Each structure stands twice: as C-alpha cells, then as structure tokens.
Amino acid sequence: MPYEWTTPHPEADTDMTLSLWPHRSLPRRGFAAFVLATFTLITLPLYPLLGTAVLWGLLPFLLLALAGMWWALEHSYRSARLSEVLTIAPEEVHLLRTNPRGDVQEWACNRYWAQVNMHDTGGPVAHYLTLKGAGREVEIGAFLSEEERVALYGELLRALRAPAAG
Q1: Are 84 and 141 in contact (CB under 8 A)?
Q2: Cα(67)–Cα(77) distance, rounded to whole angstroms?
Q3: Phi, psi angle pair for 62, to nearest 5°
Q4: Residue 102, domain extent
Q5: Residue 163 pLDDT greater than 80, yes or no
Q6: Least enclosed by CB within 10 Å: which of 10, 89, 98, 108?
Q7: Where are its TM segments located (predicted)?
Q8: Are residues 86 and 149 in the same domain?
Q9: Do residue 103 and residue 121 come from a single domain?
C-alpha cells in the first residue's frame, strides 16, 4: 500500500506517524525502458525509407509523438511528488501535505477533538476521508484507491482512539 505507519516502541513516549504517497506503477527504470522501446518501434518503419525524401516528411511527426509521450509520463511523475504526513502525538494531531509544486499545507488539532470521517458518496472520490477538528475539515489520502481508503479509515479510527502515551 502506498502508505506506511511508523509505530513507536510501546515503552517509548513518541508520536505515531503515517506517511502517504501516490502509487507509482512505472518505476524510473521502466520509464527509460518504455521510452527506448517506443523509440525503437517507431523507427523500424523508417529504415526502408533511408535516403528518401519521405523519411524527412515522417520523421518530425514520429519524433513529436515520442516527445509528447515522454512529456506526459514526466508530467505524471512530477504530479506524484505529492505526500502527506500525519503525526498523532499524545496531545495533538498534525497533518502536513506537500503538494507537487512544493508548497506545504498544514492542519493541527487537539487529539481529543480530532475526528475521522468517511463520506461514502458526495466527495470527489468514493469513500472520501477527512479529518475534522479545530474548526476545519481537511482531506487525507484522496489519491489512494477506494480499497486503501476503506482500510485506512479503520486504521485511523484505531490510532486516534488508542490511549495517548505519556
């Protein structure tokens, strides 16, 4: 799952941390291999045309298609730089969201008043998760799959209901 709990040692007086990130189905190595394979397959029909004027007519369009595919995949990687870190301390719950462009959004609330809500319908995605407290309601894990959000909802409920250390 594209999230991970950092659970403190039972005897330590530390915070629980949840790190969330978008799923990457194509690693960077696969990206390079895909672009290379696409380039190879696009150029295969050009070999019989070597030395003709038709080659120069087709080549710009094939290279433009390759550049468009590379740009779209690279854009997908840039947008996946999104991350969320939820820290559950004995007295406070703190959410830090780093957006793809690097800007940071923060939300904090007293742990006693923090609530986890799941909106089965009506949100931008099915089983939309929010944290509510301190007069605000913020989303968490909207980039996760539906099954992951359902599982995360139960885990967040348990984590917030767990007795605060200290």
Answers
A1: yes
A2: 15
A3: -70, -40
A4: 3-24+81-161
A5: no
A6: 10
A7: 30-47, 53-73
A8: yes
A9: yes
Locus of tokens 């719950």 = 93
Render pLDDT for 108-149 as a digit per residue (tens, 0 to 9).
Answer: 999 999 999 999 887 788 889 999 999 999 999 988 999 999
pTM exceeds cut of 0.90: no
Distance of CA 89 to the CA centre of its chain: 24
Is 80's pLDDT higher than 60? Answer: yes
Position 164 scores a pLDDT of 62
Say whether both 141 and 127 belong to one domain: yes
Residue 37 in domain: yes
Helix, strand, coil tally for the chain in percent (to 5)? 40, 25, 35
Euclidean distance between CA atoms 77 and 24, whole angstroms: 8
What angle, rounded to 10 degrees, do the helices at 53-79 and 28-43 form? 170
Residue 66: CB atoms within 10 Å: 15
Do 138 and 110 lie in a common domain? yes
Q: What is the DSSP letter of 41?
A: H
| Residue at 166 is within a domain | no
pLDDT in tens, 20-37: 998 888 888 999 999 999
Judge contact between 101 and 79, C-beta under 8 A: no
> Is residue 131 in a domain?
yes
Instruction: Give CA angle at 127 (101, 77), nearest 5°.
Output: 25
